[in-house]
Design a protein that fits this description.
Shape: globular
Distance between the termini: 48 Å
Largest sheet: 5 strands, parallel
Radius of gyration: 20 Å
Structural class: alpha/beta
Bound molecules: nicotinamide-adenine-dinucleotide, zinc ion
Strand content: 5-15%
C-alpha cells in the first residue's frame, strides 16, 4: 500500500480515478491515507477512453471547486492511462497549475503513459488534441496492482513496451520474446524488469526532448495509424490494440518506402502477432477513410500526413534531424495490399 510519507506534502489530497479502480483500490487508498491523518477526497468517472473528454474534465474541476480545493491541493492520478492523462490535465490547469503524482495501475500506464509529462483529452476532431506538458512530481509504480488486470489488458499494455523496444532496443524485444509466459502469469520480478527496461528507454528519450521537438517523436511509431483507428472506432477499441495494428501497418509502410527489409518486417510482425493482434484486422478499414482519419494527427504539418519510419529493429530513419516523414496515399495503399496478399 501507498503511505502518506510516499507522497509529496500537501494540505489536502484529491484522488482522481475511474469507477472500476475506485472500487478496487481508490476507496482503500483514501481510507488508508485518512487513517494517517491526511485530508483526502476521492473523485471518479466512468471507466474507459470515452470519458477522456472536456465534459469529464469540467465535471472534475467543478467538483474540486465545490470541495473548496485551492493551490495547496495535490492530485493523485490513480488508474490507467485515461485517468493519468485526464487527471494530469486537470492538475495542469486547475488554478493555473497544481502538483500531481501518478500512480499507474495498468501495464500500459506503468510502461508508458505515466512517464514523460504529456497530458491530454480527446475531441470529436481527434485524439489528444487538447492538453499540456505537465510532468508529475512523482510516479509511484507498484506491480502488485497488475494482479487484478485481465490478460487482454496486460497484452494491450505490452504493445507499448514492444513498440519502444522495436524502435529503441533489440534486447528489450528479445526479453519479451523469452519471458512472455512469465509476463502473462504476472510474475512480479519479470513484470518489474519489463517495466524498468521500458521506462528507462522512455525516460532517456524524453529527458533529451521534453516538448517533442525532435527525437521524442520516435515514441509515436505506430500512432499515426493507431490514432486514426481509435477515431474510426469512436474510441471503443483499446489504445494498445489500435497501436498494435498501427505498428504493423507503419512497419509495412517503412518497407514499402524502401527502409525496412523484409526480414526485419517479419520480426516486427512476430513481436506483435504473438500478443494476439493480427494484420488481417486492418482489412475492415477502407483506405480512404483511414487516410482521412489520419489527417487530424498532431504530427502533420501543411496538410501532409507523417509517420515514424523504421529502418531496422532498434533504429528509426532520421533525415536532417527529422523523425517524421510523409505517408502518401500510394504507400498506404501498397502496404495494405501487401499485407492482404501475404495471407
Ligand atoms: N500520456 C502519454 O504519454 C500516453 C502514452 C500512452 C498512452 N496514453 C493514453 O493512455 C490511455 C490508455 O491507457 P489504459 O490502456 O491504461 O486505459 P484505461 O485507463 O482506460 O484502463 C483500462 C481499463 O482497465 C481498468 N483498470 C485499471 N487498472 C486496473 C487494475 N489494476 N485491475 C483491473 N482493472 C484495471 C480501468 O478501469 C479501465 O477500464 C489512452 O488514452 C492513451 O492515449 C498516454
Ligand atoms: Zn500510445
Amino acid at each position: 500500500m501507498i503511505d502518506l510519507k510516499d507522497l509529496p506534502h500537501a494540505s489536502r489530497y484529491v484522488i482522481i480515478t475511474d469507477d472500476e479502480v475506485r472500487k478496487l483500490y481508490g476507496e482503500v487508498l483514501q481510507k488508508h491515507l485518512q487513517e494517517q491523518g491526511a485530508k483526502v477526497e476521492l473523485l471518479s468517472f466512468p471507466a474507459g477512453e470515452k470519458s477522456k473528454n472536456q465534459e469529464t474534465k469540467t465535471m472534475l474541476e467543478h467538483a474540486m471547486l465545490e470541495l473548496g480545493c485551492k493551490r495547496d491541493t495535490l492530485i493523485i492520478a490513480l488508474g490507467g492511462g485515461v485517468v493519468g492523462d485526464l487527471a494530469g490535465f486537470v492538475a495542469a490547469t486547475f488554478m493555473r497549475g497544481i502538483p500531481h503524482v501518478q500512480i499507474p495501475t495498468t501495464l500500459l500506464a506503468m510502461v508508458d503513459s505515466s512517464i514523460g509529462g504529456k497530458t491530454a483529452i480527446n475531441t470529436p476532431f481527434g485524439k489528444n488534441l487538447i492538453g499540456a506538458f505537465w510532468p508529475a512530481e512523482k510516479i509511484i509504480i507498484k506491480e502488485e496492482f497488475l494482479k487484478s488486470l485481465p490478460e487482454h489488458k496486460v497484452l494491450d499494455g505490452l504493445v507499448e513496451a514492444v513498440k519502444i523496444f522495436i524502435t529503441h532496443s533489440p534486447n528489450g524485444l528479445k526479453f519479451v520474446d523469452e519471458n512472455l509466459s512469465k509476463i502473462l502469469a504476472k510474475d512480479l520480478p519479470t513484470l518489474h524488469e519489463l517495466i524498468e527496461r521500458s521506462t528507462a528507454l522512455k525516460e532517456r528519450v524524453v529527458s533529451r526532448d521534453k516538448r517533442e521537438h525532435s527525437k521524442r517523436a520516435t515514441l509515436n511509431f505506430g500512432h499515426t495509424v493507431g490514432h486514426a483507428i481509435e477515431l474510426l472506432e469512436d474510441y471503443k477499441i483499446m489504445h494498445g490494440h489500435a497501436v498494435a495494428l498501427g505498428v504493423l501497418l507503419e512497419a509495412k509502410a517503412s518497407q514499402v518506402d524502401g527502409h525496412l527489409s523484409a526480414d526485419e518486417y517479419e520480426k516486427v510482425e512476430k513481436a506483435i502477432t504473438q500478443l494476439g493482434f493480427k494484420s488481417e484486422e486492418l482489412e475492415k478499414y477502407e483506405e480512404s477513410e483511414l487516410f482521412e482519419a489520419m489527417k487530424s494527427d498532431k504530427k502533420n504539418q501543411d496538410g501532409v500526413i507523417s509517420y515514424v519510419v523504421l529502418e531496422r529493429i532498434g533504429e528509426i530513419f532520421e533525415d536532417k534531424d527529422k523523425f517524421a516523414h510523409e505517408l502518401t496515399f500510394d504507400t498506404l495503399h501498397e502496404a495494405l495490399t501487401q499485407l492482404k496478399n501475404a495471407r
